[in-house]
Amino acid sequence: MSEKCDRRLCGVFAAVLLLLAVLLVLSVCVGAYPLTVADAVTALCEMFLPRDVQAMPTRVFWSLRVPRTATALLSGTVLGLCGAIYQLVFRSPLASPDLTGIASGASFGAALAIVLGVGSSAARMGFAFLGGLLSLVLVLLLVSAAGGERIGTYILSGIVISAVADAGLMILKTLADPERQLAAIDFWTMGSLAAVSAEKAIPLFAVALPAVILLLLFHRPVTMLSLGGDECRAMGLSPNVWRALLLSLATLAVSASVSVTGTIGFVGLTAPHIARLLIRRRGGAYLFLSACLGGVILTAADLAARTVGGGAELPISIFTVAAGVPVLVVLLCAEGRRRQTWS
Amino acid sequence: MELKLNHVSVSYGRRQILRELDLTVRGGEILAVLGENGSGKTTLLRAIAGNVPLREGSVLWDGQDLAACGIRKRASLVATMSQELTAEPGLCGMDRIEMGFFPEKGLFGRLSAAEREEIREMAHAFGIGHLLARDLASMSAGERQMIFLCGAAVRKTPVLLLDEPSSALDFNRTERLFSLLHRLAGEGRVILTVLHDPTLALRHATAILPMRGGQAERIELRDTADERIEQTLRTLYPGLRIHRDPLFCYTETQMMK
User: Fold this and answer.
1) Where are the domains of chain A?
2) Does residue A245 contact residue B110 with C-beta atoms inside 8 Å?
3) Record: contact B71-A237, CB cut-off 8 A
4) Structurally, what CATH architecture does the domain formed by A2-32+66-337 represent?
5) How many other C-beta atoms can be found within 10 angstroms of the C-beta atom of residue B21?
6) Fewest CB within 10 angstroms: A5, A147, A215, B228, which?
7) What is the SS3 assignment for A165?
8) Confidence check: pLDDT of A343 > 50
9) Would the pLDDT of B256 be above 60?
10) B residues 122-161 near A, CB within 8 Å?
11) Is the predicted ipTM greater than 0.85, yes or no?
């Protein structure tokens, strides 16, 4: 890599990490009960005090803001990283975590829990998680039955399973009690971090964080898979084994994330494209930057979702699209101009 | 050091592509695989590389059965250059060469400073030093081939398989490619290359392997009379003639024009 590329890479990472740090501080401080930076520092110092002697700002900090901010950061990281992995492994710029039907499967699972009257949020999470995993298993079975490792087979299988899950969701909506259950299903499918608590965030971290670390460590096979099956084999990497392993890990992380936050669109598609246009490189740096940008987009969107509507929480997907699309359009136009200049 | 194929047969479904093929190629030799489209040339390379299962027979390197080797061990012995090397944006020449070291370095190993220096020196010797920092997507097919060969040269892969390496190259690049192949063969490597141009095969190869219906018999170019070579090649290219000074092949139809 040339020195110019090195400098560019360092500059981009510094800017993104600084932006992320600012957003994290804002996310912790801004809300219906505003906290100052001094409150946050005090809360950090009072971390190990018994809850009943903690001041109100400390309780708000630890019971509401930290779980919510950490969940936004990790879920965004998962969506951004897994989006990049899907795009490289499927060798398609259109690929995203929705592609393999995981988001639809998880939505179906959560809606089923609501219709069955499952009250506990942990049980709903479990249903959503199982729905996402079931989708992946069905996609892999379909790919295996189609007898191929072709990328198109994966994408087509994902579309099929996604359509089946969406149809199931529609059936559940017609069966749901319109007074209570239908609204709950709609709210869940729109995605929100309003109901996040430490109890919900801990299982998410237990599942998604190790998966994210492993996926970042496996950046070499991810990049090699982007060259296609034959070149992978020629370089000594088994494409079938690694594709299945990486997709399973990514699905595990996405299912865990979707089971807590609901369906959040566009982050998995946008973050990798912005990362690619910013550094124009593949490999570990690209995956890490996609993950960071996913965290930036979701943290910013969550911040907007709870502040723009006054007292009301707005669906987070409105802001993930609002944050991602303009940046992506500007970068794509800049990329187009750059190509024209070259040619 | 030799690559040996014993009674190798390969089928795609019911269609048999290679039929009990026997072949030996020794270190330092360039074997040109010739034949019509669909005669089994690419399948032969894929069988040696382990990309298709053998219905029967075995592929041995220095007496060692390649089918019994793991995929990484096999990749450290056999480097395969496909017809169209992927031109993914975001990877520079050095990245591509570094990825080729996967059999030796595994998931987490990194190239040492000495290995990087060796790559730079080899790239300069190949005349492609400037390509190491260039994006693969902005390179021509020929430049990507040079990057691949440079990587294989540094890794000292003993067997090189090339599928129609000159198909996208102009005259100068074709000449440069073959001068590199001679250099690599001179270091004791086995080189098998699929070619469509019999003139290139006669100019550069040690032996030819004319394939027809999944079968073939190796013909030495140095010890075989032109008439015999001509006769064999006519089974693939009807009406072909060999002209030795300067060497080129032509067909009777071309002659009439």
Assistant:
1) 2-32+66-337
2) no
3) yes
4) Orthogonal Bundle (1.10)
5) 23
6) A147
7) helix
8) no
9) no
10) 133, 135
11) no
Q: For every residue of A42-70, which 3-state class applies, written as one string?
A: HHHHCCCCCHHHCCHHHHHHHHHHHHHHH
Q: What are phi and psi of B117, to 5 degrees?
A: -65, -40
Q: Is B208 exposed, middle or buried (0-12, 13-18, 19+ CB in 10 A)?
A: buried
* B25-75 residue pLDDT tens: 999 999 999 988 888 898 999 999 888 889 999 999 988 898 888 889 999
Report the candidate in B45, B36, B43, B35 with the shortest Cα–Cα distance to residue B15. B43
Angle between helices B171-186 and B141-155 (to 10 degrees): 10
Tokens of B69: 């080797």
What's the confidence (pLDDT) of residue A341? Answer: 53
CA atoms of A32 and A303, how far apart (whole Å)? 11
How high is the pLDDT of residue A151? 65
Subunit contact A236:B75, Cβ cutoff 8 A: yes
Interchain contact, B82 vs A283, CB within 8 Å: no
Please tell me if residue A237 touches chain B, with a CB cutoff of 8 Å.
yes
Chain A neighbours among B 193-232 (CB < 8 Å)? Answer: none
A213/B174 Cα distance (integer angstroms)? 46
Provide the residue type at A219 as one letter. H
Structure-block tokens of residue A16: 């993104």
Structure-block tokens of residue A5: 């590329």
Rounded to a whole number of angstroms, the distance from the CA of B103 to the nearest CA of chain A is 6
